Amino acid sequence: MTAYMNEQTPLSGRQATWLVLLRVAIGWHFLYEGLVKVFNPSWSPLGYLMDSKGIFAPLFTAMASNPTVLGAVDFLNQWGLVLIGLGLILGVFTRWATAAGMLLLVFYYLSHPPFPGLNYALPSEGSYFFIDKVFIEFLALGVLLRFPTGRIIGIDRLIFGKNHKNL
Q1: Amino acid 166: pLDDT
Q2: Greater confidence, 152 or 24?
Q3: How far is residue 53's CA from residue 46's CA, in Å, rounded to a whole number?
């Protein structure tokens, strides 16, 4: 079985299956993280932003110190995670969901870069040298941006057809 992203990009059934599984798994991660934040009334991005390190730390601490901006960051983070996760799981507007997920991950990476010599209050999962799970998930979303599997299995196929080029 051959699935087609478009006329120039044939995928084998196995390739398409693994790409769809990757999309759904990353979608689940985003959705779960978003729902945990939405349903926890005491959750706030304050601690995370105040713990920022690196050259962009002043930007993130400034966000945390302004209650209006902090509220906007809180709302956008929570619902962005939920909507990105749903988009990826359901395969609806997958290009938008993928690009938005990549943008969110860039902010996470810049806030807490895994550079040597930087120590964070929040426990880390190990010692990284520039590459961490945020960066790896960013790269995986980059692959999904190139192969928008919502056209193979997802609502995008119902809305746009399997060969629509402008998702």
Answers
A1: 44
A2: 24
A3: 14
Tokens coding 40: 């926890």
The token duo for 85 is 């996760």
Structure tokens at 102: 């990549």
Query: Which residues have C-beta within 8 Å of that of residue 134, sequence separation ≥ 6?
Result: 105, 108, 109, 112
Nearest in space to 28 (alpha carbons), one of 136, 116, 106, 137: 137
**Structure confidence at residue 122 (pLDDT):** 74
pLDDT tens column, 107-139: 999 999 988 888 888 766 666 788 989 999 999
CA 22 to chain centre: 12
Q: What is the pLDDT of residues 68-105, one digit of tens each?
A: 999 999 999 999 999 999 999 999 999 999 999 999 99
* Buried/exposed 7-39: b ≥16 CB within 10 Å, e otherwise: eeeebeeebbbebbebbbebbebbbebbeebee
